[in-house]
Write a structure and sequence with these properties.
With about 250 residues, this protein is of the alpha/beta class. The protein has a single domain, classed as 3-Layer(aba) Sandwich (Rossmann fold). The chain is about 40% helix and about 15% strand.
């Protein structure tokens, strides 16, 4: 019998029909939009997040099968979450967590090591705990940024940390097979997190991107979510990094 995560090329019907998608960091932004797209593609979704109230609202929005509120950096809570899942799952997307920013020379050695390894360590923790629950052909989908291609002063260690993640995802794909591992490297995405970071400078940034990006518009969560669902449904994809930045790496910004 074909497993739920194995898709036959050319089959009809929703892309993720009968499959289960776990979104870690699914209460807002890219995670929530991916959950929404996965539901539209026929999947059941399970959401996690730190804020119980926001998570409850997100679950109502997308019709989530199950939720769990915990901090992704709490290793014991992460382990408990996967241990408590009642049935096999197909896909896990990690949007929680984020890069470390700041000038390199202002960092201690400990901060440097933390900044370089935090994102990969989080992905590894999720992989260890999820592996035993995932069906063959499913995918662990990690998030990164595209800043490795254009190093600039200010962000500091984030460019180096991002640069390590494609090789990390590829190596993990070999070890986790037949479960797949892929990486989405995003440029600026217009999310609530971006709004909170930029504050009054948000509209200026949007206008700059509209004027300079080859696509003539700002990348939104729905763009990333559509890519995520494609990666989940196409079982030939593993160990790969997919840039989604509207051409940001091609122009001066």
């Amino acid at each position: 019998m074909t497993s739920a995560a194995t898709q036959v090329p050319g089959q009809s019907g929703p892309e993720l029909n009968g499959q289960t998608v776990v979104v870690i960091g699914g209460s807002s932004g890219i995670g929530l939009e991916t959950a929404r797209h996965a539901r539209s593609a026929g999947a059941d979704v399970i959401l996690t997040g730190r804020n119980p109230d926001r998570l409850k609202e997100a679950a109502r929005d997308v019709g989530a099968q199950r939720t769990a509120a915990f901090d992704i950096n709490d290793g014991a809570a992460l382990e408990q979450f996967f241990r408590d899942l009642p049935a096999p799952i197909d896909h896990v997307m990690v949007t929680a967590g984020g890069p470390t920013y700041g000038p390199l020379l202002e960092m201690s050695s400990a901060q440097l090591l933390q900044g370089l390894g935090d994102h990969a360590a989080l992905g590894l923790d999720v992989a260890r705990n999820a592996a035993g629950k995932m069906r063959p052909g499913g995918t662990l989908l990690l998030m990164s940024g595209v800043s490795a291609g254009r190093v600039q002063p200010g962000p500091g260690i984030s460019a180096a940390a991002f640069a390590a993640l494609p090789a990390f995802a590829a190596a993990l794909a070999l070890e986790l097979a037949p479960v797949r591992v892929n990486l989405i490297a995003a440029g600026f995405v217009d999310t609530p997190l971006s709004a909170s970071v930029l504050g009054d400078g948000l509209e200026k940034r949007r206008n700059e991107l509209r004027a300079k990006l080859p696509i003539g518009r700002v990348v939104g969560p729905a763009d990333v979510a559509a890519l995520a669902v494609h990666i989940m449904s196409n079982t030939a994809l593993t160990g790969a990094t997919f840039d989604i930045d509207g051409g940001q790496q091609l122009v001066e910004l």
